[in-house]
Amino acid sequence: MQNFIFDNPTRIIFGQGMIARTGGEVKRFGTKVLLVYGQGSIKKNGIYDQVLTSLKEANLSVAEFSGVRSNPVLSHALKGIELAHSENIDVVLAVGGGSVIDTAKTIAAGVKADSGDDVWEFFTFKKKIRNALPVVTVVTVSASASEMNPTAVMTKEEGAQKFTISSPFIQPRASILDPTVLYSLSPDYSAFSAVDIIAHMLEGYFNNREPESPLQDRLVEGLMKTVMESTEVILKDPRHYNARANVMWSAILAFNGLTTAGMGFVSFPAHMIEHSLSALYDVAHGAGLSITLPGWMIYAVNKSPAKFARLGREIFGIEETDDLKAAVEGIDSLKRWFSTIGSPTSLKEAGIPEDDIGRIAENASATAAVWGMKAYTKEVISEILHLCKG
Amino acid sequence: MQNFIFDNPTRIIFGQGMIARTGGEVKRFGTKVLLVYGQGSIKKNGIYDQVLTSLKEANLSVAEFSGVRSNPVLSHALKGIELAHSENIDVVLAVGGGSVIDTAKTIAAGVKADSGDDVWEFFTFKKKIRNALPVVTVVTVSASASEMNPTAVMTKEEGAQKFTISSPFIQPRASILDPTVLYSLSPDYSAFSAVDIIAHMLEGYFNNREPESPLQDRLVEGLMKTVMESTEVILKDPRHYNARANVMWSAILAFNGLTTAGMGFVSFPAHMIEHSLSALYDVAHGAGLSITLPGWMIYAVNKSPAKFARLGREIFGIEETDDLKAAVEGIDSLKRWFSTIGSPTSLKEAGIPEDDIGRIAENASATAAVWGMKAYTKEVISEILHLCKG
């Protein structure tokens, strides 16, 4: 076990009917709320009305900032920061999935930055976040775990760079999760969510500094089994409460620091490469990960066949005794499972031309540099991308 | 999944060398510290010196309150409250195991109570804790998880009542855990710790309101396997860092709200009955639990044989296909494992006379009443105790 600090103070309010508590939670931090949301789906499925009713009952004054799209962009977040300044906002309320929550976090930190230029410097790690407005979330897509972690991801359109910030100041103070909210999530996005949750865990499972991690491995395997069986239920019955609830809570536990506590520095190569796919082609993050994760696994399998074999045996019941063979069977099984639930597993399936591999590798190597992943040169990334062709 | 709130803001600082951070953590909450500890073992194993050095480096003023014994008593905690008043204490620092931490929590709440009489009324749920001094802990025995939960257990000598309080105000703000501290823990107490950790989880596993809990069940099973295999290593090699670290972190995850989130109201019958054993006979809590838990399991097995069978199959690899038979085999296996590690599994082994069953049941039924466990009448408790005879 490596030394660690686990400090996760987000209050999770979980269950059917809990959105009615939004106003009460927000009110702990002030009276002027910036309500951040996406393209308006929350107006169709009734969540917007539930939230507004609760905010009004708590006598809060609300300014709205909508239009966040998936793979959110910095230029949009900067407009949110301006609005937050002009409305003298006390607290930022995100109602949405990871993109909306990450935009809210960026706004919360940006309001306390010296200038708009500084905000991107948070993402390039040139400047450190030293303060932020409090953030509260109502989750409508469960995958990123942004609702219970200190991280946000944002794309700068100029240069198509998709980078990350992490600071305790932007960690949500409270997050409200009602599984019935997920009933209207499409089969595609239900599948992409499952891929994202699994990818968060497997990156830590394979890329860490701790050679002996029976506890963390078991936590990952238990969560992964639960997400897989629940997703299979959801694709048949989108309104299955327990299956939606299991995914909603597993998504959080998969990436709130629990499964990586004690693992030392963890790196995220499949995410690093995927960020370039979604920055350059605007594919859904989960769809990109079902391409890059198996590709990366094939690239890496020879370095630790025993660990890859463990995954295959624990998750897919593979009985092969040779580690390398079991490992490869496991990777194949995972890839097949991603296909079964409807997530693409090759660049080709996602409509990304093979000829673009050089350009993607160029873009990803910039992320690798910022994330301190020296082993991932443009050449290595290119090699992995060739394993993602299909 | 039942509705739940998960709100666990304790900062965990984990690993070798981390005790040097004690002063820095304590200083966040004030300058006058009440240092609470037990019978002085921390002076023998060097932990006292490490803590004092760190407190001095942070320029903190320290008042000492020692002498906490296992199964801590209210009369002693009341003296600590007096001392905290007279020294005008800002923050309470517990250096010890569950008994010391629970005494520190009781003092922290008691300082803000109107009178000493009120303090016991917190435990009988007649009064509610409305404020407390901040608590910080340095853990020297890992079992109770008191270092990351809002609960404390205390015995009132008059009437031999062992009751519980729970309040967010007494939840530690920070807890420092260095696995090397456990190297000097005796084989007996290493075994009792394992029993306590497992019992915390199994009570929730069996006594909850949620019929379908694949995620929580897997978390429990993964933690339980880790605690069992690590304890076996520790009994052979008490200075095995990873085994001690796995137990230390598992103890927390076993009882910090994680494994019961979504399970609805959870009851603790084996703990309820054990409290009477330790209140009346001063047996170690873990030793008492290895007697009452298997007894309770035999009593309850017919009510949900499938769940008991699941435990037997997952933990002990039992292949029997009949649920009731597999369940009984599983209980036998658990009892045998408790014996193997050196924890008693019958009243007889603990030197408690069979003739006392009536008296124990009388005492336990008072706890059952306070804890709202109506089904556990004196007669039912007596029946369970007869199954604990050996």
Task: Please identify the structural class of chain A as seen in this structure.
Answer: alpha/beta
- Uncertain stretches of chain A: none
Question: Roughly what percent helix of chain A?
Answer: 40-55%
Distance between the termini of chain A: 37 Å
Q: Name the pair of protein chains with the most residues at their interface, and give those residue counts.
A: A-B, 39 and 39 residues
Rounded to the nearest angstrom, the radius of gyration of chain A is 20 Å
Largest sheet, spatial ordering of strands of chain A: 2-9-6-5-3-4
Task: Give a quick account of the main beta sheet of chain A: strands, pairing sense, barrel closure.
Answer: 6 strands, parallel
Please give the number of β-strands of chain A. Answer: 9
CATH topology of the largest domain in chain A: Dehydroquinate synthase-like, alpha domain
Portion of residues in beta strands of chain A equals 5-15%
Number of helices of chain A: 15
CATH superfamily of the largest domain in chain A: Dehydroquinate synthase-like - alpha domain
What is the correct CATH architecture of the largest domain in chain A? Answer: Up-down Bundle
Structurally, the number of domains of chain A stands at 2
Shape summary of chain A: globular
CATH class term of the largest domain in chain A: Mainly Alpha
